[in-house]
Design brief:
Blueprint (H helix, E strand, L loop, with lengths): L18 H13 L17 H11 L15 H4 L7 H5 L2 E7 L11 H5 L3 E5 L8 H4 L5 E5 H5 L15 E5 L8 H6 L6 H10 L5 E3 L3 H12 L12 H12 E7 L21 H4 L5 H11 L4 H7 L1 E5 L7
Parallel strand pairs: 1-2, 1-6, 2-3, 3-4, 4-5
Antiparallel strand pairs: 6-7
The chain binds cytidine-5'-monophosphate.
Cytidine-5'-monophosphate binds next to helix 11 and helix 12.
């Protein structure tokens, strides 16, 4: 049908990127900042959606740093880390929404649908105020990167945007590194600001994502791609999708796979244009989207009209 040509092609390769983004990808590959030494297999015959979902469930350990973990097991850190783990804190949700920050959310009128979910995940500095009709007003969890927490200009410590919902911060770690190794040399040293935020907002749950997860997920992305993917961690979007799969029976994802509103406008809340935001530059975003397309349980027409993908939660899967 006409529609099928207009939704994300799950066989997308770097040849589908504009030349500038192909060069950026090649540069990251020669840099190999995180010392990726991938020796796993490459699935030339495609796994079924069910098998792929089971790989995600069984191989990606989604955990938050706890006061009993490695270098964090000091009396100093006990004062700051949440006592309850994430699922003890929130219980479990039936239907969840993951809201990408894509420019394609503009004029989508998806807000009311997004707000019907039991929990809503948003990313980084994505606002709701002023954008409710397109993105809704509920925020249950906000996943932020360590750069946002660290860099002063981002106003993480003072902007009230961050005061609602449960916060989770993540930071890129070396490939399959021990927590100790990462702790000594984080990508962005967000630890001081994490402590400061916890002191200012002691009642708001605020977790540090265990960095193990990013490379367990990356290995699955690489295994199921036909070429070398960027040797950098998955995007916040992909990490957030898998986090919600651990907490929810069903996860609806909005504008991660672009709808008919696809645009080079990076974020729905800014004017900045860059095709890299949707297609990936630093992150292996193209390959994340291929994987999500392959495991989608919803209709292609809903990708086209709503940018909507439906995935099952891990507890609802039979492997
Ligand atoms: O830019 P930022 O990381 O804050 O956006 C959150 C996530 O939304 C990204 O990590 C990416 O997965 C997704 N995104 C997208 N297309 C865009 C912008 C963001 O897929 N144009």
């Amino acid at each position: 049908s006409v529609l099928s040509v207009n939704v994300w092609n799950e066989e997308s390769s770097s040849k589908n990127l504009i030349p500038r983004l192909q060069k950026v990808k090649n540069n990251y590959q020669s840099m190999n900042k995180y010392n990726v030494t991938y020796k796993g297999r490459r699935n030339t015959t495609k796994l079924s959606p069910e098998k792929l979902l089971c790989q995600l469930r069984d191989r990606v350990n989604v955990t938050m740093i706890h006061g009993s973990d490695g270098p964090f097991n000091t009396s100093e850190w006990q004062k700051y880390l949440p006592e309850k783990n994430l699922s003890q804190e929130v219980g479990h949700f039936r239907q969840c929404a993951v809201v990408s920050s894509a420019g394609a959310l503009k004029s989508s009128h998806l807000g009311p649908e997004i707000d019907t979910h039991d929990a809503v995940l948003r990313f980084n500095g994505a606002p709701t105020i002023g954008f409710q009709s397109d993105v809704g007003e509920k925020t249950t969890v906000r996943l932020v990167n360590s750069q946002l927490v660290t860099v002063k200009e981002q106003k993480f410590l003072t902007d009230i945007l961050y005061n609602t919902g449960i916060l989770i911060v993540w930071d890129p770690a070396p490939y399959h590194a021990e927590i100790h190794q990462w702790y000594r040399k984080p990508d962005y040293n967000f630890f001081a600001n994490y402590k400061e935020y916890r002191t200012r907002h002691p009642k708001q749950p605020f977790y540090i994502l265990n960095p193990k997860m990013q490379w367990e997920l990356w290995d699955i992305l690489q295994e199921n791609s036909l070429e070398d993917i960027q040797p950098n961690p998955p995007s916040s979007g992909m990490l957030g999708i898998v986090i919600m799969m651990t907490l929810c029976d069903e996860v609806n994802i909005y504008e991660f796979l672009p709808s008919k509103r696809q645009t080079d406008i990076c974020h729905y809340y800014q004017r900045y244009h860059d095709r890299a935001c949707t297609m990936g530059a630093y992150h292996p975003l193209l390959f994340e989207k291929n994987l999500v397309k392959r495991v989608n349980q919803g209709q292609n027409e809903l990708i086209y009209t709503h940018g909507k993908v439906t995935l099952p939660g891990f507890r609802n899967m039979h492997c």
